[in-house]
Amino acid sequence: MATETLLPLELIDKCVGSQIWVIMNSGKEFTGKLLGFDDYVNMVLTDVTEIDPAEGNTQLPKILLNGNHICMMVPGGDATEVLEDE
Amino acid sequence: MATETLLPLELIDKCVGSQIWVIMNSGKEFTGKLLGFDDYVNMVLTDVTEIDPAEGNTQLPKILLNGNHICMMVPGGDATEVLEDE
Amino acid sequence: MATETLLPLELIDKCVGSQIWVIMNSGKEFTGKLLGFDDYVNMVLTDVTEIDPAEGNTQLPKILLNGNHICMMVPGGDATEVLEDE
Amino acid sequence: MATETLLPLELIDKCVGSQIWVIMNSGKEFTGKLLGFDDYVNMVLTDVTEIDPAEGNTQLPKILLNGNHICMMVPGGDATEVLEDE
Amino acid sequence: MATETLLPLELIDKCVGSQIWVIMNSGKEFTGKLLGFDDYVNMVLTDVTEIDPAEGNTQLPKILLNGNHICMMVPGGDATEVLEDE
Amino acid sequence: MATETLLPLELIDKCVGSQIWVIMNSGKEFTGKLLGFDDYVNMVLTDVTEIDPAEGNTQLPKILLNGNHICMMVPGGDATEVLEDE
Fold first, then answer.
1. DSSP letters of E27-52?
2. ipTM of the prediction
3. Which of B73, C84, D20, D44 has its CA 20 to 30 A from that of A28?
4. What is the pLDDT of residues B66-81, one digit of tens each?
């Protein structure tokens, strides 16, 4: 059972190079490929889609997201294409 | 009486592998099994239900929650199935 | 006069095992017995009442409150039964 | 001119034992005597008045305010009785 | 080109003794002379004007602003009297 | 594939001397040339435009932005003139 433990930074580290889905505290949502992160959970994403059902999605080539304002990260890009890594 | 003391990280550590109920500062609520956490109270949950009375619940296989935005954690998954650990 | 000084963590430490009243930044309010805390002012409460004048109070056996989102702590449980400790 | 410099913690330190006026990020306001503080600007106040023009003031014997949520501190208790310390 | 680099704390340090314009995250705005600051970007201002177009400006002799809640700092006091320091 | 990794501070460091687009947590947006930054992602910008579709843009010669309140940074100034740096 001990092998089931998964630390937050381990989960993020497994996602480098893969699609993730990030929900900011303000409600903004992004999907993109995770290029890197640091101990503050700041993240660099590439090939980013800002998801905005009201005004339409926006494509951005590369962004930095401040870890302070990231509320939740879901591996796999969005709820329909989730990563099963164990 | 001194044995009654329970540090925050001790409480979280006891919950690894068990169901918890997490309420974010934004009002979002999640239940799921706690896979791991770190000193910033970032948490990895698996078999997650995002509880949304208005729009219906969402199932997510695995998420990272930013400790900055976690307001409250209740051991036991929800108010109706609480963990009595002493 | 120097003896009047009271550091924040000293005040919290005096409250371990006693009733406190906690007001979160979001407006949520809790009373309960303080079981423990850490340097980030994260707190573990037991025998908790979440005070909600609009929807009614909720009883919770044990919770973790994130120090980041605690706005104010009042020793004594609520405004009517305050602790006079000097 | 160099003597005009006043560091934040120096200003707070000068206020220990005196009346201060604290405005929280949420808009809550308190006046009271500062009993102590720490490096996170957490503060312990005594003989506190929570100022609430809408619902009336509340007296509290002793409170802890989380430095995270303190927006502004004015030496002197309120805008009408300010401390002139130079 | 390397000489063009200006670190955040260098910019603030240059402003000690000068007028600055501070915009808080809540929307509050202050102008005043910067007396000091620390690594958390907490600031002490003197001869302060709280700018409030709706309810009128307020004069305050000395205040502490919590760096956590400072959103933006503009050297020069306000947009009309900016500091040109290079 | 390992060379694809890009750490947050590496991305910011590449942007020093270039145009960036910064979106604050409050919704404020700025474009300008990045003069410097620190480990807290505080940033100094020069030749700044505060973008405000409602009230019109404002020019500011130099500002400090608090990293705490920066939500997102996009290299390249705005969505229409993005930096392709690999």
1. S-EEEEEEEEE-TT--EEEEEEEEE-
2. 0.83
3. B73
4. 998 999 999 996 544 4
